[in-house]
Amino acid sequence: MSYNLGIALLVAILSYLLGAISFARLITRRFSSGKDVAQIEVPVPGTGEKMQVTSIGANAASIELGAQGGMLVGLLDILKVAIPSLACKLIFPNLPYYTLLAGLAGMAGHNWPIYYRFHGGVGFSAAMGSLLVVDWLAVIVLPISGTLFGMLVRNLVVASLSWLWLLIPWMWFRTQDWVYVIYAVALNILFILAMIPEAKMAIHYWKEGKLHEYGESVLLSTPMGRGMVKMASYFKFSIRPE
Questions:
Q1: What is the pLDDT of residue 116?
Q2: What residues have CB less than 8 Å from 240, skipping those under 6 apart?
Q3: Cα separations (Å) of 86 from 39, 60, 108, 207?
Q4: CB-based burial of residue 239 (10 Å sphere; 0-12 exposed, 13-18 middle, 19+ buried)?
């Protein structure tokens, strides 16, 4: 069997539409008396200001629902991408392009959901859902390696994001196939594009001389961020410059 454009379009559309389901909104609304997660604000330490969340995903849900609620949203976000990817892998076992396409389309749906005026998350959980099917070992090795690398260089941004960067050489190491490398690059591009609103917010606070306060707000507002801060303390470096 060869690749078919019609099938590829069907895979992309269905995966996008499923990925566009915002479990962060649905779960938060269900368990917080109808509260809209997109309207959640968090304090910016030392400024008296509040900042509205820009990324609508598991982390945003955890601000309102706590760690367990955030984990539930993250699991559902993983599954909404993993299920169509796995379906493609089972239906077309010798045509991996469909599986890779399903993962990318699902992440695009999560980041820019058509149901919510294209305001979504950044795609951490969505990327994990795709990788579970494409290469499950990456889901274990890369986040651990990225976190440890970030702690060694004493940078929480590197600790949070470098696992995605490492995915590019990892895919070449695992497959020696440029298609998988392109897939890894595409995942990174989708993530970078989705990070633009947060980057604009960071630039805004940087211009006001409050970048570190903004960083603390982002980290301390979620269970995962507070866990990163605790890990930084274990490695004996501060999230604030000396």
A1: 93
A2: 212, 216
A3: 34, 27, 17, 45
A4: middle
Task: Render 107-145 in DSSP notation, one character per residue.
Answer: HHHHHS-GGGTT-----HHHHHHHHHHH-HHHHHHHHHH
Chain segment 139-188, per-residue pLDDT in tens: 999 999 998 888 888 887 788 889 999 999 999 999 999 999 999 999 99
- Across the range 84-88, mean pLDDT stands at 97
pLDDT band at 74; cut points 50, 70, 90: very high
Q: CA angle, 236 as apex, 232 and 242 as ends, to 5°?
A: 95
Q: Are 136 and 159 contacting, i.e. CB atoms less than 8 angstroms apart? A: no
Token code pair at residue 83: 């299920």
Task: Give the span between the Cα atoms of 184 and 86, in whole angstroms.
Answer: 18
d(CA 174, CA 98): 19
What is the Cα Rg of the chain in Å? 18
The helix/strand/coil state of 41 is strand
Q: What are phi and psi of 113, to 5 degrees?
A: -75, 125
- What is the torsional sign of CA 145, 150, 153, 157? positive
Q: Which two tokens stand for residue 71?
A: 């984990």
Do residues 213 and 201 touch, judged by C-beta distance below 8 A? no
Q: How far apart are the first and last CA of the chain?
A: 61
- Phi, psi dihedral angles at 109 (to 5 degrees): -65, -40
Domain boundaries, the chain: 5-234
